């Protein structure tokens, strides 16, 4: 069982992006479109691989969003990433972890990037402790959807990808896992994720 973190164990940041855009009178989906454009080498990708610092990210994101029609500062986007933990999915993870090996692959930011997130780090640490292994993009310089990050997890857990289930809220991140032979679940809500996990594991999780 391999989980993404944001948008799976937490609510999606997309809701916060939409609120921010509406409040500022920005074009709808400007943040998501900026993230999606050149998604392997854009400001976001470089930041998640810890190749640029927060000042460079702020500047690059502003440039990239401006090219799509409206300037958004990278620093303004970071606080929007703080989704709320989905307790029902955390509970399901606890039950799964009692029976199966578990891993988490998260595209995250360098540890010092978001001061506003420090308040929840203790709770997040408790959730992360449920996993046998956690891979963080900013620590290893690789990020999803690079196939190497999935291979690294499979090798570390010593599991056959054909026996793995992988959950993510982004289709682009599910594709490499599926190509390796994993069963994939595209997460749109906590309830939907739990229902599909129950089907995949045969466990009662709700």
UniProtKB/TrEMBL annotation:
<keyword id="KW-0378">Hydrolase</keyword>
<dbReference type="Pfam" id="PF00702">
    <property type="entry name" value="Hydrolase"/>
</dbReference>
<dbReference type="InterPro" id="IPR011945">
    <property type="entry name" value="HAD-SF_ppase_IA/epoxid_hydro_N"/>
</dbReference>
<keyword id="KW-0007">Acetylation</keyword>
<dbReference type="InterPro" id="IPR023198">
    <property type="entry name" value="PGP-like_dom2"/>
</dbReference>
<dbReference type="InterPro" id="IPR023214">
    <property type="entry name" value="HAD_sf"/>
</dbReference>
<dbReference type="InterPro" id="IPR006439">
    <property type="entry name" value="HAD-SF_hydro_IA"/>
</dbReference>
<dbReference type="GO" id="GO:0016787">
    <property type="term" value="F:hydrolase activity"/>
</dbReference>
<dbReference type="InterPro" id="IPR036412">
    <property type="entry name" value="HAD-like_sf"/>
</dbReference>
<dbReference type="InterPro" id="IPR052898">
    <property type="entry name" value="ACAD10-like"/>
</dbReference>
<protein>
    <submittedName>
        <fullName>HAD family hydrolase</fullName>
    </submittedName>
</protein>
